[in-house]
Amino acid sequence: MSRPAPAGTDPQRACPVSPVVDIVFSRWTTPILWSLHTHGRQRFVELERRITGITPKVLTQRLRQLERDGLVVRTYHPEVPPRVEYEISDLGLSLAPLFAHLAEWAGDNLARVEKAREAYDGGPALP
Questions:
Q1: What is the C-alpha to C-alpha distance for residues 52 and 55, in angstroms, rounded to an integer?
Q2: 15-122, CATH topology level
Q3: Spatial separation of the C-alpha atoms in residues 106 and 62, rounded to whole Å
Q4: Which residue from 22, 24, 53, 63 has the least number of CB within 10 angstroms?
């Protein structure tokens, strides 16, 4: 493993994973990618129904950003009425092993995290 970056170093250089975290793990990105990976090509309303709590405005913004980042493909069908579908790209699919590892980690460790939180919250007040 390499040595820690000196103080004052650009955070992007200090932690090369940081840009990936910014791209993939923003608030709604993982549910969108998960839904597209699990259910395949979907229309906007289908995504909106599957991802409870997301507003149409935020879903639109996230889909545009994911399309810009190359993780989602948007297909416009010039019909009446127009139809737009979204699907996960090959680049987005390449994240599947990462999500599988995270799901495994969650299954193995979230109970421990919850216990740590309970111990911390129930412990003595910090000065």
A1: 9
A2: Arc Repressor Mutant, subunit A (1.10.10)
A3: 24
A4: 53
